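Example record

One chain of 207 residues, shown exactly as stored in the release files.
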Amino acid sequence: MDIKTAIEEEKKKQESMFSGIKERIKGKVAVLYGEPFVGKSVFALNFSKIFKNSTLLLIDRNYIDDYFKINTNLNVLKVNSPKQLEYYLGKEIEVKEDQLIIIDSITSLSPFFITESYITPRGANAFSNFVDKVMRHLATLKPTTSLVITHERLKSFESKDIVPRINMIALRHADIVMRMWVENEERKIEVVKERKMVNKIEFNFIG
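Predicted structure tokens for this chain:
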């Protein structure tokens, strides 16, 4: 197989992968988490190319100029504060056909609530309430697809479980939660939580 054919085959493989993920999360609120620099932003930008309308609410300042070449049709709104993010979501985002909203990353707004030197319960609670509010608003924008990017954290030293670095209560508004990691020099994405509709509920009364 020559180089040109190999490139075309890899392109088709990626397009098929992105289409499969799109079908899985279309019209939903999705959370993607992983360690810093694992490739979450690059994935999101490539993913945005298969939507007719895509908006990036850019909070993370680790972006480099080459990132924006991935999708030149992407609408980029730079976010400098929690209030600005709320403003954009409320005033600048209109529900459109085949639309993707990317928030990258919501974790980057935590310093507005939590200082790096000293984490107070009040600050942590304020950040959790803010994330919860954002997630609730995204749920009202359906059938728009929302992709919220966040870093990861260790849930406990005993279990070694890796979870998103946002309050688990805020995740109740997420339809699907995915984790990205690297294994054998390959990036992988795993669905770790998916909310499904319950059509039937049975009760057992005791006493």
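Notes: The chain has a mean pLDDT of 83.
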